[in-house]
Amino acid sequence: MTEKTIPLLPCRTELMQSVIDFYTALGFETTFHQKSPYPYAVVERGPVELQFLGMKEYDPAQSYSGCYITTEDVDGLYETFRAGLKAAYGRAPSRGLPRIGPLKDMSYGMRQFLMTDPSGNSIRVGQPVSEDRSHRPAPRETFARALHMADLFVDSKEDLPGAAKIIDRVLGLADERPTPVQHLRLLVLRADIAQRLGDTAAGELLERAAGIELTEQERDAVRDGLARLAELRG
Predict the structure, then answer these.
(1) In sequence order, which residues have a C-beta less than 8 Å from that of residue 161 and are 6 or more positions away?
(2) Which end of the chain has fewer beta carbons closer than 10 Å to its terminal beta carbon, N or C?
(3) C-alpha distances out from residue 174 to 51, 169, 170, 192, 215, Å
(4) Using one digit for the tens of pLDDT, what is the confidence trace for 49-64?
């Protein structure tokens, strides 16, 4: 006997079609769509199946629901999903609802990105890059620790103001300076947060990040950050 888990995710009633359209852009097929006696939909992409239940009073902005999808090619899936969203929306949305976040290596052995659909459901897509899935201890060095904690606040807790405070504090230090790689990663993450919060400082942060001089070795070490910088500036 083969068992299968299928996430059942909430969806504000009037957003059901928008949710279906979002997943269609990602390459999902709608295999069931019921409008009465209550809205219900099923989308599938290969072995991945997601089901959605319409709820009249559901507030997407207050959503805590979601699921995790694992893959053997997270880089390829990220590019596929971004391309699908660009075709559907004219861009790959990075703020508001829906949105798709950056691809990055996390401190718990996963390389992942986070999407949020029009009804506020968080869909994490990741690939194991280590056999150890436990959280790594926070580094002791000031800027490495700040990056570690800010990444967790953004991608695990989805606490954007908390992550912004962490980054602002270390960028404001007068007696310590980050390495160029750390500096770029901090500025790009802070700009990403600023855009999602509707903060006009995002543009200035991106320009500062773009002005950091890097060696070829440093550019290779921060390739994900440079890719996100290009996405946010585009």
Answers:
(1) 197
(2) N
(3) 51, 10, 9, 24, 25
(4) 999 999 999 999 999 8
